[in-house]
Every structure is written in structure tokens, then in C-alpha cells.
Amino acid sequence: MILPTWLVLCVGVLCYFALPIAIWCIRKDRVRNILTIVFFCMYLIVLFCGVFGSLAISENQIIVDFDFGGQWCSKTIKWSLSHIATFDLVINLLMLIPVGMMIYYFARKKQWWAKLLILIGFGLLTGLLIETCQFVLPIPRSVQLSDVLLNCLSVTVGGLIAWGYLAIIKKIRKY
Predict the structure, then answer these.
(1) Is the distance from CB of 98 to CB of 43 less than 8 angstroms?
(2) 40 in a structural domain
(3) 175 in any annotated domain
(4) Residue 92 falls inside a structural domain
(5) In tens digits, what is the pLDDT along the chain, a chain of 175 residues?
């Protein structure tokens, strides 16, 4: 599958910034919750392609290819935190921000420390699940401890962004 880079960037900006604010500004809870779940399902499809597909990114296009021709459980796990590439750092920090936003949104009535524990726990579990799938499935991906930690941080950052969004929306609604 070949996608234009400009399209991917536009969809990314919409998914990470515009859609959450637009959806959360809707006053009817039922409509807002349905749109949030629909948006999240679309995000999960994109996440699946990114995690289990092979990405080739250039200035003009992004190629997503699914290659399941490798060996099952044939990878080594990189335990060191010193080999993190800049691309991996950016991707892993951005990848799960919508997950953190979704968790914060649905846990917004809990105490701050409970939200933080939920975000960190879900971030660790999601990172472990992704890395376990990359280890077990015959896909061309490496398995790294740093990815789990960065995924956890990504979910937590997503929760902080949602906190900021909801605080802004609350102030807007007061006026």
C-alpha cells in the first residue's frame, strides 16, 4: 500500500489535535462517546498497520507492506537502553498518545493519582503486548526494552495532553 506523505501528515494532525478537541466540545455525552469510540477504532487500524507492517518512508510517499514470511520467535531481545535511534524515539513517543488521551477521557472522574496509575499501567501493558507480538509473530521488527518504556511514556503524555484539552474546553464552556 503506497500513501502520499502529505496525506499521512494531514491525517496525523487531525487525529492528534483537531479531532479530539472537536469531539470533546460536543455537549451530548452519548454522541461524544460514540464519536470518541469510532475515532479510536480508526486509530487502532492505523496503529495495527504501523506495528505489524513494514514502513518505508520517503519525502513523497509512505509504503506499508505486510511481510509474515519470517521465523516464529526467532528474534533476540535488546535489553540495553543505549542503542535508541532517533526515528524509534520519535515514533514510540508519538505512537500511543491517542491511547493515553482515550484512557484519560474515560477515567476523567477518578482521582489524579488513580488516573496516573492507570495511564502508566496501561502504557506498560500495551508496550509489552506490542513487543511480545513483534517477538512471537514472523514480522521484520526488532524487540527492544526501550520501546516498552517509550510506549509507557507516550500513553502518559497522551493523558497529560487530554488533561490540557479538557481544561481548555472547560474554560471555553464557562464563557
Answers:
(1) yes
(2) yes
(3) no
(4) yes
(5) 676 777 777 777 777 777 777 887 888 888 888 888 888 888 888 788 777 776 666 666 666 666 666 666 667 777 777 777 787 888 888 889 989 988 998 898 999 999 999 999 999 999 999 888 888 887 777 788 889 999 999 999 999 999 998 898 888 888 7
Residue 174, domain member (yes or no): no
- The three cell numbers locating residue 74: 526467532
Number of domains in the chain: 1
- Expressed as residue numbers, the domain containing 50 is 2-167
The answer to whether 65 and 53 are in contact (CB under 8 A) is yes
